[in-house]
Structures are given as C-alpha cells and as structure tokens.
Amino acid sequence: SQADLNSQFLKMAVKMAKDGFSSADAPGTDGGNLACAWAVNQCASKALGKQIGGGLATANMVVVLRNKHNPTTKPIAGAVIISASASVGGKWTIGHVGVLGKVDPADEDKTLIYSNSSSEAKFMQNFTLGRWRTKYATNKKLKVEFFELKPSLFPGASDIEVG
C-alpha cells in the first residue's frame, strides 16, 4: 500500500541518517558535494529494491517523479521533497532533494527532512520544511514539489527488511 511504501522509505532514510551514510565516495558528486539525488536514489534502492531514477541531477529526477509518481500538494511523511535545479532569471540555480520525515501540519518548522549534506558529505536530518521553503522557494526562487513514490513501480519492496 501507499502508506506501507512511505513508511518503509522513511524508515530507511532515518536509518541512513542514524548510521551516518556517507556520500563522500559517490562517483561524479565532487566528493559528496553534489550528491543529494544520488543519496535519495540510494535510500530508495535500499528500502524499495530500486532507484527512483534521474541519476545525479535533480533536474532529471523531477522529470521521473512528474512522469511516474504521485504528486501531492501537502507534505506527507515518507514522500520525496524536491526543488529541482533550474534556470532562474537566466542563471542556473542548484536545487536539492530529500525525504520528508515526521510531518507537523501546524508547524513547518517541526516537519523534518532527511537529505545529503553537501558540507558533511553524509545523509542526515538537516532541514525542516520551513527552512527548506526559505532557502529554495524564497531565496533561490525554485519550486517546492512533493511526490509519493508509486507502489506498483517497486514490486519487491514489501519483501525488504528495513532494520
């Protein structure tokens, strides 16, 4: 079910953060500096049996998400949050992608996000939804989008044990 997939994806994101999952050696990411899509794909692969897709680029990942997964207007625990890299005012602006954690509908500053930290080259709980919106929507002028991964695209997910 959708709820089971969201829960399994979020459990893996929390586990990866707790374990200090490193992106430092991820190929093509400048030592983990540009590894947010790589890390979210690793999370999906570990939790659900395969990657979301799009490679290392949020601009490519968002195309996969828009074409194959379920957009949602509100944050849902275990969904993907993405502010894809895009041209803003004629200048290429780098975006970000993560996994929504515990959602507090009353307070976006208490809604948690797990993503790759460029400065630390590791996956961690490093944003709240409020901080994300300030950085990516207000300051960088990028869209903030939410997607629930489509369970039918991860047929083996229920067999994977997320410890």
Defining key terms:
alpha+beta; 6-stranded antiparallel beta sheet; 8 strands; 163 residues; two-stranded antiparallel ribbon
Topology overview:
Layout: H1 2-18, H2 36-48, H3 58-68, E1 70-72, E2 80-83, E3 86-88, E4 91-93, E5 96-100, E6 112-117, E7 122-128, H4 129-139, E8 145-148
Antiparallel strand pairs: 1-8, 2-5, 2-8, 3-4, 5-6, 6-7
Helix pairs in contact: 1-2
The largest pleated sheet is described as: 6 strands, antiparallel
Low-confidence stretches: none
Structural class by helix and strand composition: alpha+beta
- Counting DSSP E segments of at least 2 residues, the number of strands comes to 8
The neighbouring-strand order within the major sheet is 1-8-2-5-6-7
Which word captures the global form? globular
Tally of helical runs:
4
Strand content: 15-25%
String of helices and strands: HHHEEEEEEEHE
- Work out the radius of gyration: 14 Å
Task: Please give the alpha-carbon distance between the first and last residues.
Answer: 19 Å
Say what oligomer this is.
single chain
Mean pLDDT: 95
What's the gist of this structure?
With 163 residues, this protein is of the alpha+beta class. It has four helices and eight strands.
Question: How is this structure best described in words?
Answer:
Helix content is 32%, strand content 21%. It has 163 residues and is α+β, with helices and mostly antiparallel strands. The strands form two sheets. A six-stranded antiparallel sheet has the order 1-8-2-5-6-7, sandwiched between helices. Helix 1 (2-18) packs across helix 2. The model has no long low-confidence stretch (mean pLDDT 95).
